[in-house]
Structures are given as structure tokens and as C-alpha cells.
User: Fold these one by one.
Assistant:
Number 1:
Amino acid sequence: MPTEQDLNEAYWANRYRQNQTQWDVGAATEPLKAYIDQLTRKDQRILLAGGGNGYEAEYLHQQGFTQVFLLDFAAEPLANFQRRVPDFPREHLLRQDFFSLTPHRFDLVLEQTFFCALPRHRRAQYARQVFDLLVPGGKLAGVLFSEEFEKEGPPFGGTAPEYQSYFEPYFRFSHFAPCYNSIKPRQGRELFIVLERRERMQFLA
Ligand SMILES: C[S@@+](CC[C@H](N)C(=O)[O-])C[C@H]1O[C@@H](n2cnc3c(N)ncnc32)[C@H](O)[C@@H]1O
């Protein structure tokens, strides 16, 4: 099982350098675009965590969203993004470890192939960190794989009940269902989630 060291910044930076980026679809994906298209407040603070080359950040920027932040600990994708979107505010590019991000407060965190890239033992910590980064009532939205994979990850798969156990203490489930508009290779293999941050953590029986 890969450890944190195995999936550190050097590991991911190397994957970008060697063009081993099979997750990268080269554009904002349909489920994320459709979700973004129904957002109305253009000044909400939005975080793309483990956002890689940042196609959704680019899309948001093009649509006039002004408070978009792209975070990744690998330098390569952020440099690629800067070359592609030179007018994106430099201070909104956060090159750091997601788990060390403080004290930002966001209205929305968008998820796509970041959760599945983390070592499995960090999943509960991810849920907690998103809770800490969101304002009360803020949302975590995006896609999660809905199946286990035969090959050792990343990506690491999972199941709806497993995910529920991580997120329930911190979020209300506004939407948590099979994704109907996944990109072709991910069809039938993703959940679309919209989770609303609870006011405070809830201890569940
Ligand atoms: C599978 S890629 C997904 C990139 C992007 N979300 C996409 O859909 O194209 C996972 C990304 O998460 C980044 N990453 C992994 N662990 C991280 C961490 N702890 N903090 C910040 N970035 C991280 C990697 O550098 C990589 O860019």
C-alpha cells in the first residue's frame, strides 16, 4: 500500500514531467461544467484542490468568477496553467500541500480526481480539512469514483457507504447519486456529490 512518502510532491511532479497524466482530460469535464453553469454568485470563493492543470479553474475564470483558487503541491501543473491563463491572479495559485492550507475560507470546494489520488488513510482527514476550509453552509461538490479498482492506485476507488462514513459527521448530503453526465471513460463509475457543510461537527451514534 503506498505511503504518504510514496505519493508526495516529488511523485506527482515526476508524473507531470514524464507525461504520465492519464487522469488529465485536457478540458473542464461535463459534470463539473454543468454544476458551475448553474452557479449564480460570481464572487463566491471557490477552491480547486489538487486541481492539477486546472481546466475547471480556467473555465470558472472565463465565466467571470473572480475568487477562484487553484491549489496543487506540484509546480508543473501550476506553471502550465499560468502559461495557458496568464491573466489569472497569481496570488490565487496556491502551491502547497492541501492539508497545510490555512486560514482560507471558501464557499465552495470542487472535487475531481483529487480524493482518489490520496493515500486511503487520509480520506477522513480530507473530509475534516474540507470542513475546516469551508464557511458554514459552504459546499463540497464534484465527482468521486463509485467502484473499487483491480489495479493498485492511484487512483484508489471506493464505495458510497465508505464515503458516507467520512463525510456524514461534517456535511449534510444535498446530492449523492450516480453521475449521469460523466465523461465517457468514467460513465457508470462516478457519483456526483453536493455536500453542505454543517454548522459544527456532529457526533454520530
Ligand atoms: C490525479 S491528479 C488530478 C488533477 C486534477 N484534479 C484533474 O482532474 O486533472 C491529483 C493531483 O493532486 C495533487 N496532489 C496530490 N496530493 C496533494 C496534496 N496533499 N496537496 C496538494 N496537491 C496534491 C497532485 O499533484 C495532482 O496534481
Number 2:
Amino acid sequence: MDRQQLRKQMRLKRRALSRKQQTTASEGLKRVLIRNPILLGRKRLAFYLASDGEISTQPLLKWALATGKECYLPVLHPVRHNRLWFVRYRPGCPMKRNKYGIDEPCGVRNPRVPAWGLDLVLLPLVAFDPFGGRLGMGGGYYDRTFAYKHRRGGMKGPKLLGLAHELQKTERLELASWDIPLAGVATDRSLYIS
Ligand SMILES: Nc1ncnc2c1ncn2[C@@H]1O[C@H](COP(=O)(O)OP(=O)(O)OP(=O)(O)O)[C@@H](O)[C@H]1O
Ligand SMILES: [Mg+2]
């Protein structure tokens, strides 16, 4: 199956989940992560706001805000083509809808950081494998944003952790030269460390 077919199939599967299943999954995801050392000692965390059937980060985000983490959301970079930067999110802060219909915190009054200023980035994805392979929506946003990891051996900057429903797991994805591997993926049921 090629990348396009796999994207289509997985997006259909995750969109078919009921509201109840989505809620249960997002609570499962929170349970998997809050007891894991991967969040310990990491202060600046980047989340995303779920769309298209993606697993919701809401319970985890609420927990992170309550425990004093600095939480950020991705914002389409105004100048650098197809790249993301990250703006601080606080409950009730002004938001603006981007061209994909996803809310972004307004960048004027909220502090923003470049990708390498974060400690942990939680990435949405369409499909994953247990070896760090990630297939996204096809825009290449995260790959471009973290492309510097190729040059610096992947050691510097935040840990990249994908979030997904368990049903988005595949045996093995064929990665392109530009694909940035993940340190792991957390689902509603397990944490896969690559
Ligand atoms: N570092 C880069 N520099 C320039 N172009 C890039 C880079 N990384 C990815 N791209 C381009 O982006 C396009 C989409 O990449 P890909 O199919 O891997 O998206 P994706 O990882 O599924 O998307 P996303 O990260 O937005 O969820 C590719 O055609 C590729 O040429
Ligand atoms: Mg990619």
C-alpha cells in the first residue's frame, strides 16, 4: 500500500470512532503518559488540538496545566514556509483559526518558542510503526520544523513523541529521506519506545 492509500484508510478508521470511544481513548492516553518518566523533568511541552479523528490531548493538557508545565501549541509560521513554531497556551487565551480550521493561540501577546526551545513535542500522526516511523497528513510541517535534527544527529532539542489511537499502528512504514524519526509513540493503551 502506498502512502496515500494508507493515509486514506487510517483517516477513515480514526474518523469512524464514536464520541464515546474518543473520550475513552483520550483518558487512556493520559493514563499511559502521566505515570511514565518521559514527562518527568520536562517542563516545556508542545501539544496539538485534535481534528480529523486524531486522539484528543485534552485530558493530558488539563493535567499538564494543573501540574505547572508550560504548554505550547503549534502555529503555522508566518514567514518560514510550511514550518511550525510554538506559542504558549493558557486556558482562555485568545485563539485564532488557521487555514486548516485549527485554533492557534494568538502570537502577539503569548510567548513563543522555536522548536528547539521545547523539552517534549507531542505530534499528531496518521499512521505509525513501533520503530519511530511516522506518517502525517502529508504537509511535511513537522518534518520541516525538525529537519535540523538530521544535521545535528538528532541529539539536540526536544524529544519527539507521537500520539495515536492503537488502531493507527502498522507493521513497518517505509520512511522517506526527509522523515524525522520519533523517539516513540503513546496510544490509548501503550507506550512504544523506538
Ligand atoms: N526538510 C524538508 N525540506 C523540504 N521539504 C520537505 C522537508 N521535509 C518534508 N518535505 C516535503 O514535504 C512533503 C510532505 O512530506 P511527508 O509526506 O513526509 O508529510 P507528513 O510527514 O505526512 O506531514 P506532516 O508532518 O505535516 O504531518 C514531501 O513532499 C517533502 O518533499
Ligand atoms: Mg513525513
Number 3:
Amino acid sequence: MRTSAAAPRDARTCTRTFVHRASNARRPRARAPSASTTRGGFQADERVDVVVVGAGVIGLACARELSRRGMRVFVADRAPAVGLGTSARNSEVLHAGMHYAPGSLKADFCVRGRRMIVDYCEKKDVRWDNIGKIIVASEESQMDDLEAMIERAMRNDVDDLELLSAESLREYEKNVRGFAGVWSPSTSVVDTRELMESFRRDCVRDGRTSISLGDEVVEITPAGRAMYRVKTKSKVIAAPRIVNAAGLHAHRVCERMAEVYDQVATPPPPLYFARGLYCTLKKGSGAPFQRLVYPLPRHGGLGVHFTKDVFGNCKFGPDIEWIDEIDYTIKPERVSAFYDAIREYWPELPDGFIRTAYTGIRPKLINETGDEDEPGATTDFVIQTEVDHRASGVVHLFGFESPGLTSAMCVAERVCELLE
Ligand SMILES: Cc1cc2nc3c(=O)[nH]c(=O)nc-3n(C[C@H](O)[C@H](O)[C@H](O)COP(=O)(O)OP(=O)(O)OC[C@H]3O[C@@H](n4cnc5c(N)ncnc54)[C@H](O)[C@@H]3O)c2cc1C
């Protein structure tokens, strides 16, 4: 069993604490900033136009776009290198956009974001592969779901899906069995590491952006009108704008802005964690499929699917396990359920074919039961701005699970529009 360090505190606890503060603060009570936090009342190591908290794929995409638009940006990440969070623990798929509710941020960002990333990869020579994906309905009873997905795709402007019979499924992938399926020719994979490295290079090239690594943001306080004092482990930064792109820790960063949030109108959405395990193939095994192969989605995830990265490395996963805190533990006992899930579309999967590899954690804004009546619960991404929390120039990004990678450049564009 491999275990990596769990986060020091339960982020759900943080959320609860935070919501409590927020409700106290709904009274229209202006908090006078203390002398040490008024404009000019503190010594800043740097003054910038925007601080971005988090150098994952979304934080980097935001920093790059803000910088391109002429802003001086300071990016802080507590990790020793960029992109070591969720951005390093995913399927690396550029989704086409058939899975998301029409009109949702996920649908909009995914469909436009995929095209933006593909154009970017072409221009910058970042590895990507237009590998395509097959979605399998293993039984006749799943046909309604398959048809609903096609209908949803059309409404999301994804018009290249092709319905496959059981026979054509086998022609596409000789190992796949199913009642019917869908072929998505525009689903692709990208080298996430290379993409983030390219964003990082773009950020620092023009000299307007600096990226401070191993540098956790520990406190954000108001410092006069429309100005914030951002304290990291190593510096104090003054900035009128903040982008909270801290991924799984975005709620905790909110907590560290408690003063900024004293007049909050809408608290952050509830937060839950759903861990996903990936498995690779036994050493020496050949790829069972040429393309990506998915079952139909289920609550919380897209199902245990097969992906092949730009280097030809194959994996199955992720599964879904609801957990209480950020904890990347790998549980070997979960592998047996992988066999059942994969055999729904590949009945000939041999015993002993897969090995545990790594886990990723989805920041969920809806609980395991899918209870949409819970205040603030949603399956969509949430972007909170001044309209929600009354702190000018502050943008929070919550719930950026899949398709967050695909959406990154589109999210960046939206964040810039909100801050300009
Ligand atoms: C299992 C799984 C599979 C997925 N598969 C796909 C997929 O195939 N396609 C797709 O489009 N999307 C996928 N996603 C979603 C995608 O990976 C995420 O949406 C994306 O990586 C989120 O990027 P981020 O920058 O918001 O978060 P992260 O990459 O987690 O970055 C946040 C950063 O903030 C830093 N940070 C946190 N707190 C602080 C602090 N106080 N101070 C400074 N820094 C801080 C962290 O160190 C981290 O580097 C998947 C997600 C999961 C979990």
C-alpha cells in the first residue's frame, strides 16, 4: 500500500467553519481595517495587479492569460513544482462535451476549451493525440441513457457523434462487446505535463509574471479600498485582485480570507471529496484497445474507462470512493471491482491483468446521494465573484473536477473578463 501525506486538516471542517462565519457576517456590518492593514500601512515585498493562488493547469492558464493582457501577476503554489496537484492525477483526456448539462459552465467551457487547447498545442508543439473514444452501452436497458447522451451532445454543439451497432463496435475495437455504442472522433488526449510547462514558460517569458513555488498562501487580509495584503510563507504581496485557483484547497484559501469575507452574501458551496483509483496493465501486456473506451457515466464519475496517453501508456480508472479528507491512499482491495466494471465491455479481460497505479481526488460540490436540495449543492463548476461575496476583484474557482483540464483555457478567458 502506498500512502502520501494527508492534508493536515479536513477541508470539510474548514467549509463548515467558514459557512458559520459567513452567516454571522450577513448583517451589513462594515469592518474597519486595522491600522496594519490599511493602504500604505504595510510593507509589501511586491505590488502586482493580480495574485493567483495555485499553479495547477487552471491557475497557470489564468496567469498566462492575465499576463498576456498586460497585467503583472504573482502566482504562489505551496508545492515545490507546478502542476503537482489534481492536474497530475487525472485521465489527461480532452473531452468532447457530451456528458454535461446543456447551458452549464461545464458544457460551455469543455466544448470551447477543447478547441482552444488543441489550437494551442498545435501552435506550441505540445503533444496531443486525436485518439477518439467509444462509449459502450453493454445492455439494451442502457439505450435510453445512450440516446439521452447523444441528444445532450447535440444541444452542446457536439455534432460529430456516431451511433454504433454491436457489430460496428467490434469492427472499431475487436475486444469490445456491447449492445450498442457511440463513437466520438474528437475526444483526444494531451500531455498535461508539457501543456503546463508551456503555460509556465508563456507566463514568465514577458517578465510580467513571477511564479513562487514552495510558497503557500497563508493569509489574505483587506488593506484599504480594493487592495489586499497577501501573505505567503516567504513574502507579503499587495494586489487589488485575487484568483483562488487552489483546487481541492480552494475552500481552505477562503478560510484564510476570513476578513475579506466578513460581508459575504453567498457562502462557498458545500465540499465533498471523491477519490478515484487508476490501474495500469501488468508489465509486458499489450494495449487491449486502440482508442479510449468508456462505459456509460454513473453518479459522480464517468465510470472505469480505458485510456492511452500520448506515449501509448495504458490505464483503467478512475473508480469512485467518497472520502472525508484529502488522502491519496491506494487500496489494493478495490481492484477486484475493476474486473467486474471492465468486463462489462471487455468480457475476455484475463485475471491478473491490472495493477494499482495512483489516485486522484475530485472536489465535489454535491454529496454521494446527489442531493440537489442541499443549499449550494451542484454538479456544475462554481465561479464566485464580487456579486457573491462583495470583495471587489476576488474570483474563487470551486469544484473544478473533470472536465477542468479540458476547460482550463476557457476558464482563464472568463476569469480575465471578470477581472477587467
Ligand atoms: C480522477 C480525476 C480524473 C480527471 N480526469 C480529467 C480528464 O480526463 N479531463 C479533464 O478535462 N479533466 C479531468 N479531471 C479534472 C482536472 O484534473 C482538474 O479539473 C484540474 O486538474 C484542476 O486544476 P486546478 O489547477 O484547479 O487544480 P490543481 O491541479 O489541484 O492545482 C491547485 C494548486 O493549488 C495549490 N495550492 C493549494 N493551496 C494553496 C495555498 N494555500 N497556497 C498556494 N498554493 C496552494 C496546490 O499545491 C496545487 O498545485 C480529472 C480529475 C480527477 C480528480
